[in-house]
Design goal:
four-stranded mixed beta sheet, 16 strands, seven-stranded mixed beta sheet, 2 domains, alpha/beta, binds (4S)-4,5-diaminopentanoic acid
């Protein structure tokens, strides 16, 4: 039988590297051919062959209100009819900045960009420009987009500067990035003791969502805050994933920690390209045109993208939005854990707000090393067994999952039933 998906993948591979515009979409980790999606509505997507799936990727996080929410679509249509782009300021950008500074309490001033990568890259340059220092600390397994300084893996020793994790990143750049273990506050303290006067910034995902899902250990985020304050380094919370996902005020509100700078993306664009970075006014005032740190973008604050983001942020502010979303996410995770326990499988799952992690190991992991010990083959079999049963999970054992407000009790029940059958098939 001919499959339109397979035809599209063959055509795509002839003209697009790997057939995809972002590598994890290629299904290399799980095997098989990626699904090409033709449409999405509420919690479901439909592929090129007309098969429907309950979607737990949600465009990798942005679609907190589900696919094609009518309010978002009408906001986009209205904005598009008024002009697609001006390269000049518009009222919507001001409304978005007012909203973000109101909802995320550490953000006194904010600049809009077009992606999470741009947000982290710009925040980092700003931190370096503000402190006059070159070095950066990140944590292994945290992903902050694909800027050169951030595609770095640990060096030869715990406290030595890093090496490129991608070809094309010069060592001259990676030598300024120190890669430490997530949830290891002592290692961070040692790093500051050794290199403190060189460190411009510590960047961290307050809930790590790019090595599956790892929650911060009690005290870890506070230790980072204290060390940054003590040593004059800028604390950057990368909330591209967690912003408006784990709490209405971001992970910083959930854990009660005030970063100096925050990066946002995903939900604030509602499915269109919007990123943002912002924080302390004295730091943000170093950005051009006020200060000497350069940053710019032709489509920054694009009116159509910002309209989608504003409409989405209006939805999440409706009374009871997060209570219901988190309750449904909790029910999903509880159902999956119970199904696995009944079968005595080495499996665990957890959620923080509407982000979740599934692990083919006993007990939830607390570090990159622990998550790496999970059984990837078992995940890959589970992934395909779920796909066959109409459930679309992230095609990698090391990505977080996302629930939207369009996932109701019926979708959760259907997913748990599919998981029971998938577990039995492993
Ligand atoms: N940055 C995403 C993984 N954490 C992948 C984005 C995509 O493929 O769209």
């Amino acid at each position: 039988m001919t499959s339109k998906n397979d035809d599209l993948f063959a055509r795509a591979q002839a003209v697009i590297p790997g057939g995809v515009n972002s590598p994890v979409r290629a299904f290399r980790a799980v095997g098989g051919a990626p699904r090409f999606f033709a449409s999405g509505a509420r919690a479901r997507v439909v592929d090129a062959d007309g098969r429907s799936f309950i979607d737990y990727v949600g465009s990798w996080g942005p679609l907190i209100a589900g696919h094609a929410h009518p309010d978002v679509i009408s906001a986009v249509c209205e904005a598009a009819a008024q002009g697609l782009s001006f390269g000049a300021p518009t009222e919507r950008e001001v409304r978005m900045a007012e909203l973000l500074t109101r909802l995320v309490s550490s953000m006194e001033s904010v600049r809009l960009v077009s992606s999470g990568t741009e947000a982290t890259m710009s925040a980092l340059r700003l931190a370096r420009g503000f402190t006059g220092r070159p070095a950066l600390i990140k944590f292994e397994g945290c992903y902050h987009g694909h800027a050169d300084s951030l595609l770095v893996k640990a060096g030869s020793g715990a406290l030595t500067f890093g090496a490129p994790s991608s070809a094309g990143v010069p060592e001259d750049i990676s030598k300024h990035t120190l890669v430490l273990d997530y949830n290891d506050a002592q290692q961070l303290e040692d790093a500051f003791a050794k290199h403190g006067n060189q460190i411009a910034a510590v960047i961290v995902e307050p809930v790590a969502g790019n090595m599956n899902l790892i929650a911060p250990a009690p005290g870890f985020l506070q230790a980072i805050r204290d060390l940054c304050t003590r040593h004059g380094a800028v604390l950057i919370f990368d909330e591209v994933m967690t912003g408006f996902r784990v709490h209405a005020g971001g992970a910083q509100a959930l854990y009660g920690i005030k970063p100096d700078l925050t990066t946002l993306g995903k939900v604030i664009g509602g499915g269109l390209p919007v990123g943002a970075f912002g924080g302390r006014r004295d730091i943000m005032n170093r950005i051009a045109p006020l200060g000497p740190v350069y940053q710019a973008g032709t489509l920054s604050g694009n009116p159509v993208a910002v309209a989608a983001g504003l409409a989405t942020l209006e939805l999440v502010q409706q009374p009871g939005f997060y209570e219901r979303l988190f309750r449904n996410t909790g029910a999903l995770i509880e159902g999956l854990n119970q199904a696995a326990q009944k079968r005595k499988l080495a499996f665990s799952a957890q959620h923080v707000g509407s982000m979740f992690g599934l692990y083919f190991r006993s007990g939830v992991p607390g570090s990159y090393a622990e998550v790496m010990q999970s059984d990837r083959d078992a995940f890959n079999r589970f992934f395909h067994a779920m796909l066959d049963r109409g459930i679309y999970l992230a095609p990698s054992a090391f990505e977080a999952g996302f629930v939207s407000s369009a996932h109701g009790e019926a979708e959760i029940r259907e997913t748990i039933a599919a998981a029971e059958a998938a577990f039995d098939s492993l």
